[in-house]
Amino acid sequence: MIALLMQAGRRLRTRHPEDEVDPSCFPLAKRLMCGDAMRVSDLAGQVQLDTSTVSRQIKQLEYKGFLERTSDPDDGRASLVRLTDHGRATMEAAFRRRRERIKAALDPWSERDRAQLQKLLTRLAADLRVANDLDAQAVDTSSESQLR
What we know:
By secondary structure, this protein is mainly α. It has two domains: 17-108, Orthogonal Bundle (Arc Repressor Mutant, subunit A), CATH 1.10.10; 110-148. It contains six helices and two strands, in the order ααααββαα. Strands 1-2 form a two-stranded antiparallel ribbon. Helix 2 packs across helix 3, helix 2 crosses helix 5 and helix 3 (40-47) crosses helix 4. The model has no long low-confidence stretch (mean pLDDT 88).
């Protein structure tokens, strides 16, 4: 089961020939598409990645002109990042290609099979979220007891 999920994940992250951005940057771009400018540290927290990882990806997007930095009006030492219009259009096209790829793969499936897949993936995602939360709580509890 794990191998199949990992294989599906790799297939979903496969670079399309027209992609201008590495698929590893997609979660950042998706989050920035859904909101306003934000600090890199806040973005990292929202996509649940290490700030150093997000910083590297941000530099890649910035270098290609897909993202811009502005100073944070609340803290002059910090900066905010947001997608440029070009970056937004590029990412929208990339996401559209992914949707088309998935749609093409699922087109031969019956409506019943697609509904069952959606139901089971939703359940799996929720159960994994609970398991991850329990793991995080166990680590927090363990760390607290070690500090005492």
